[in-house]
């Protein structure tokens, strides 16, 4: 369990460097169950030419929150992660929800196996900007060891404050993680991966959380299956976007915050 003092240090380091690693955040037993669940998940039929450029590298499983309940609840019901995300992403003017409860949303959750050609340098925030207010946070759970030898993530420290799109640079640093480690990082951070042609798996779960007013990757609240709808609590309904849907017109509602 990460103590309150440690949580403050985590947030300070995240804001300063753009990332922080929490070693052995999940036990071997939990990681084993996560990987077993993920490998059973399958994508729906995907239309040709609809896959974005950066998702054409390796293997990607979409909408993990709808296909892998154990993975989703392991993340959504972690008090440590909830407290950290609330501190960074909560809108203090969202008065309909208590300040210590989430009002951020899940933008997307995927499983990725980084085999093959590496990802080119990029940012996940759409635009670079300098601000104390972060809009999107990524959380990566390593299901396999992620090492130099199998194309681990590379980042440029503090590049989330560069106010520039990702560029080629000599300052990329290898971020090696072990199975069970948790990486929390600012979406503005310059990052890429190396090629991994040795066929050694590098599965991870990548969850992107954002402020409530940013458009998610999918209409998560519409596609959530019946079993999940029965299991989620009020906090998870907020995270999955049920409380920040876009109305058809003024007859449905006007306030986007409910």
Can you characterise this structure?
It is a single chain. This protein has 258 residues and is an alpha+beta fold. It has one domain (4-239): Sandwich (Jelly Rolls), CATH 2.60.120. Helix content is 26%, strand content 17%. It contains 8 helices and 9 strands. It has helices at residues 4-17, 28-40, 64-67, 69-76, 79-89, 220-223, 226-231, 234-239; strands at residues 19-22, 59-61, 105-113, 136-142, 153-155, 173-175, 182-186, 191-193, 203-210. A 6-stranded antiparallel sheet has the order 1-7-4-9-3-2, with helices on one face. The chain has a 3-stranded antiparallel sheet with strand order 6-5-8, with no helix packed on it. The longest helix has 14 residues, at 4-17. The radius of gyration is 18 Å and the shape is globular. The model has no long low-confidence stretch (mean pLDDT 93).
